[in-house]
Amino acid sequence: MAIRKIVIHPADILEKSCKAVVSFDKKLARILDDMYDTMIEFDGVGLAAPQIGLDARIAIVDIDDEHGTIEMINPRVIETSGEQTDPEGCLSFPGLYGEVTRPNYVKIGAFDRKGREYTLEAEGFLARAVQHEIDHLDGILFTTKVSRYLEDEELKGVESE
Ligand SMILES: [Zn+2]
Question: Where along the chain is the active site annotated (predicted)?
Fold first, then answer.
């Protein structure tokens, strides 16, 4: 396990659609383990492979709830509904936070590290984090969705993804 370097915006890798994972092997497991260590080191609630410089549809989310660490390989959004507007940040944009409106509910399909397909339903903050990470895999950055940037005094308790 190792902590990887976070790619900071601007960088081409952050703005491209990533390639699907085809091998569910030891290399994938090591990437996921490293992504977890890196997310924890930088105090994030999610991390996508392009944020460590990898062109691969791999992302993790851990908002410290009963779901534990959600590993999403080749994830796809199946359904969304509702709306939520809340502060959001990103490990690739240190110190930058803004309000982003996203669906309040999302249902996704993805594969785990062993190549088993699963579906996940999420609401609220978890749904926000999941959608933020899946956006990364399509080269979509949260800054394209910010309606208002936040000032320092508004930032208490906002975590980065
Ligand atoms: Zn991000």
Answer: 133
